[in-house]
Amino acid sequence: MAAMTPTATRTPEQAEAPAKTARSRPRPRIWRGAVLLLAGTYFLLPLVASFVFTVHVPGQGVTFEAYTELLAAEGFTQSLLLSLGLAAATIALSLLLAVPALVAVRIGSPRLRPVVEVMCMLPLVVPPIALVTGITTVLRWGPEHLSRTPLYQTFIAVQNENFPVVLVLAYTVLALPFVYRSLDAGLRAVDVPTLVEAARSCGASWPYVVLRVLLPNLRASLAGAAFLTLALVLGEFTIASLLGFRPFAVWIVSISGAQARMSVAVSILSLLITWLLLLALSRAGTNPTTAAATTSRKES
């Protein structure tokens, strides 16, 4: 007797199952599109309403005076340049502190990783108001007790209104958890000990290993850390306001009472500037050679 093939034993319901599965595949795409549409509406609707508020004046119609007068507004350029300078200094200092420490822990002392993680994540537990209270106490204590020492000039210099270094130090503390998470994820994805041993066996020095071997492999993580730090600095208000400085976020709030439309216009413009800077950082974190290699693999 001939053996029965598997197709002969299949029931009509089993035969129709693949067809039903094929028909049900497009459904996740529909739900994904609906979710994206709702999310886009949720985020874009307030921006559109804010833009309409800035250009529509009752009784006058549509006018762009809020945007034309923006560049000539007192303090606009100075506050924006100050925030961008603080962001650049904070990014540089955060990476300068975090990258060597995390690489050293990854290579030489893996057991210290939990300790470093706890120390880096502590700023998430401390409220900004508590942090600024401690900073204010130190800034008041220094000139009173160190007025006859060279450190007195240091306390004065870090509070310079043109470029307050104390804000850079405070923002570095606030940005440390985000920088740590981004770099730690990048280091976990790279076999750091093998790369270091291979480079050292070829005679490379430690600066060469860090700058030419490790950092290129951490390019996306570095861009992500800079991405988060930039967003944090441009939007921070509490510390700068309580310390008496006037970066971009504080300037926006200061003009909101007298010039409501201009303050909303500045907020929209700041969002656009932030998005452009973040887009530039995200493109900087994409390795062109890696992208080309990936594209060539897909085409082959």
Q: What structural keywords apply?
A:
mainly alpha, 15 helices, globular, two-stranded antiparallel sheet, single chain, about 300 residues
Report on the structure:
The protein is an all-alpha fold. Helices cover 76% and strands 1% of the residues. The chain contains 15 helices and 2 strands. The chain has helices spanning 12-24, 26-55, 65-68, 76-107, 113-121, 128-145, 151-157, 165-188, 192-201, 206-217, 219-235, 238-243, 248-255, 260-284, 288-299, and strands spanning 56-57, 61-62. The chain has a two-stranded antiparallel ribbon. Helix 4 packs across helix 8 (165-188). The longest helix is centred in the first third of the chain and has 32 residues, at 76-107. The chain is globular and about 75 Å long. Mean pLDDT is 79; it is low at 1-8 and 288-300.
Helix and strand arrangement:
Blueprint: H1 12-24, H2 26-55, E1 56-57, E2 61-62, H3 65-68, H4 76-107, H5 113-121, H6 128-145, H7 151-157, H8 165-188, H9 192-201, H10 206-217, H11 219-235, H12 238-243, H13 248-255, H14 260-284, H15 288-299
Antiparallel strand pairs: 1-2
